[in-house]
Design a protein that fits this description.
The protein is an alpha+beta fold and 221 residues long. The chain contains 4 helices and 12 strands, in the order E-H-E-E-E-E-H-E-E-E-E-E-E-H-H-E. The strands form 2 sheets. Strands 3, 4, 5, 6, 9, 10 and 11 form a 7-stranded mixed sheet that branches. A 5-stranded antiparallel sheet has the order 2-1-7-8-12, with no helix packed on it.
């Protein structure tokens, strides 16, 4: 799974890297993004425009009675997206990218879990495959939310965890964002572990265990 990540870029830098012309959500750089918090998401609208939006991390299906279900849907397994009622419609119509500069997983050492920060070996931006939904509450207010798609872990994450976020390379981003359904074979081809050599993993500060802690010092063990 992926339960914590970082996005240490300004809205302006993120917009430039992703080629978005419109404004980006005014969310500050973060080093400890946690579930149910607002995150920046890239979607393509019906007219083909790329746009960055702020959404709640933890997908809330349109049929949900209340938003609390989102805290249990921060991740969606790539292998079963087309089978799960919570994700099936979003897979067909509402795919997105969730930008990050790294993510955290925890390595077990005896009874202790030690945080590891996983980042691109050469720096830069990661884009996680995601799904998004729009939920309307009893008062008529709309809440947009998202989930990160995960797959079996590849190197170096497989040394300490069994799953990782699906990281889409630049050449796959447009296909994932394309409007309309994708062929199941194409979905399977896109939602695979990152290629070997892309990522490195380094010990992070135990302070990342608490969502209340923030700052670049969390990256240092």
């Amino acid at each position: 799974m992926c339960g914590r990540y970082d996005l240490s870029l300004s809205p302006e830098a993120l917009r430039d890297l992703l080629g978005v012309e419109g404004p980006a959500p005014a969310l500050p750089p973060r080093w400890n993004v946690a579930p149910t918090q607002p995150v920046t998401v890239l979607v393509i609208l019906g007219d083909g425009r790329r746009t960055l939006r702020a959404m709640r991390w933890g997908l809330i299906p349109s049929w949900a009675k209340d938003p609390s279900i989102g805290s249990r849907m921060i991740n969606a397994r790539a292998e079963t997206l087309g089978e799960k009622p919570s994700f099936r419609d979003a897979l067909r119509r509402r795919r997105c990218l969730i930008p990050a500069t790294g993510f955290y997983e925890w390595r077990k050492e005896g009874r202790t879990k030690l945080p590891m920060h996983v980042r691109p070996r050469d720096g830069g931006l990661l884009t996680f495959a995601g799904l998004w939904e729009s939920w309307t509450g009893p008062d008529g207010a709309t809440l947009e939310s998202c989930t990160i798609v995960t797959c079996p872990a590849g190197a170096p994450v497989d040394e300490f965890h069994e799953r990782m976020p699906v990281i889409l390379p630049p050449e796959a981003r447009e296909r994932w964002l394309a409007p309309g359904p994708l062929d199941p074979a194409e979905v399977a081809a896109l939602l695979v572990p990152a290629p070997e050599g892309l990522l490195v993993a380094e010990p992070a500060s135990p302070r990342v265990n608490s969502p209340a802690n923030e700052g670049p010092d969390l990256l240092r063990g």
